[in-house]
Amino acid sequence: MNPPTGCAETPAMKKKLEMNGERIIKEKAEQHFEAGVGAMSESHFDKAVSCFSKAILLQSHQTEFYVQRAETYLQLCDFQSAALDYKHACSLEPQTEAYPQRLAFIYYLQGQCLFDLGKFLEALESFTKAAELKPSFQPYHMRSLACLTALGHYSDCLRLVSNWLETDSQSADLFTLRARLHHQLNQMTLCYHDLRSAIRLKPSCPEAQALLRRLKDAAEDSHQAAVDKALKGELSDALGKINTALEYNPNKAQYYLFRGILYRRLKDFTAAIEDLVLAVEFCGVAEDPPQGDLQDNSEDLEEDAQTQLVLTYNDFAIQCFSQGLYSEAIMLLNKAIEKQRGASELFINRGDCFFKQCEWTFALADYQQAEEMDPGNTAIWLRLAIIHNTLGLHSYQDKKYQEAADKFSVAVKYNPGAVQYYENRAKAYSKVAKMEEAKMDAIRVLILEPTNEQVVPLLLSLLPGCTLTDIMSCAMAQSVKTHLMAKIQAFKLAVSKVSRIGRMALTKEESQSQTSSQKLHAEDGSEQKMKEYITPGEVQQKLVNRKQQLNQAVKRALQQRQSLHYNGPRLAPVHPVREESSSQERPYVWKKFGGFGLNC
């Protein structure tokens, strides 16, 4: 009602008019709101939206108006408008927890519709908003994961699941889910470990069990392919196949054993040792509790792995030995001996290394230890002969002549066919006035090596007035020859028996994936060093060389022979033994002994 014309509007009147206006607006807004509620009950959603909009226009601070319009928009599947109205409601009443949860649900519905339409990126955005509003509700996160998977963003999926496993409680389902993602990304080893974790938490988890069986089957197929490649000699290809098998099943001791053998054959000894150590470890940590024959198989597998580890240490030592790395070879052989103390070949090889380092005492101890284990091994006899001869040379240089003679005697006992030992002992005996023994040794030298000129002066000085022909044709010389030949023949017989029987290797014949391995010591008595089996070509070459040497020796003997009609004196002074300051060299007048690869 307008005031009368000409009357002034008082403050009281003005306030009354404002209150009347607010009341009218409020009543009108409530009318529109009630009309909207009535329209919703009759499913007239468009009309309801119009009524609620009028009410909000009149009173924009009423939270309930926005909530009701949002629900109406939701019935019309207008998720965007519904979300905007709930955002207004949240801003008007931030303390009310129901509004953000309802908004999250709207984003979830919007995302699900977009996902069904194939709009995965837009759906991901909606699901992400829902998860941000309600972070503890796992289904919203799972829908985000589904969108990432549909988009092919497996790395992002993996990052998300890993974060859940780190922050939330671990579950078999989450481990299985991450295992599937690893499988999709071709990360088979990580997939295997996640499946094992899932089964550890839930042994009856069918999804994890099924995928784990698939991995094991694929691993075994790759293993069989590796065996086939190895049988064909394609070691590099076999290595690639067994690597694949280990990616699919990284806890299989048999696979590590096989790869360790391949590495050993490929001369990659460091990698071989690592794999064989792992094979031993995994033999003790079986996937399932060992029972019955499974336990026996595990024990056999561990024994094979230990044996292969010993062979690898030995082969690595052989490589170091060939490069002059004797200390490194000794350390490797020490490890091999720790694991298998009953192998005489290992002590022989270590003795060879000590010999190269001029550690005579240690070398002798190892050779003697090997002899105790294998007393009939002539290869050990030859080494013992050489080491005692070497020790005798050093005693002779130190003027300990009786001690030198005793050591030369031991050398002769182990190898009665080496002319140098008799020559050395003859000189030692002459120094201690054992002339009869010196005479016998000098005769033995000439029996074995008629062209030897080193002992002739000594022999003629011991038998003055006799010619060399008279000495060598006398009954005493013939008796010495008979006994000497008998000893040599017995020694050769022992050598031939060993060669017929064959050397027993450290292990049984290797599996079908292996070829013959390196021997742990040299068979041929002419080479005292660690080496592989001698090939037929090498044997033939050695025979040719020996025949050439024999022909040259015969020619020298014919050219240097004495006249049969010469009856003059044959006395000559005994050449003194030259004293050397260094114990590493032989006296100049002594003939250097050969063979066995142990010349100093």
TrEMBL record:
Q: InterPro entries in the record, alphabetically?
A: TPR-like_helical_dom_sf, TPR_2, TPR_rpt
According to the record, the segments passing through the membrane are none
The ranges of region (Disordered) come to 506-526, 561-584
* Repeat is among the record's keywords: yes
Q: Which UniProt keyword terms apply here?
A: Repeat, TPR repeat
Q: Where are the TPR repeats?
A: 63-96, 104-137, 344-377, 385-418
SUPFAM superfamilies listed in its UniProt record: HCP-like, TPR-like
Q: Does the keyword Ribonucleoprotein apply?
A: no
Protein name, entry field = Tetratricopeptide repeat domain 16
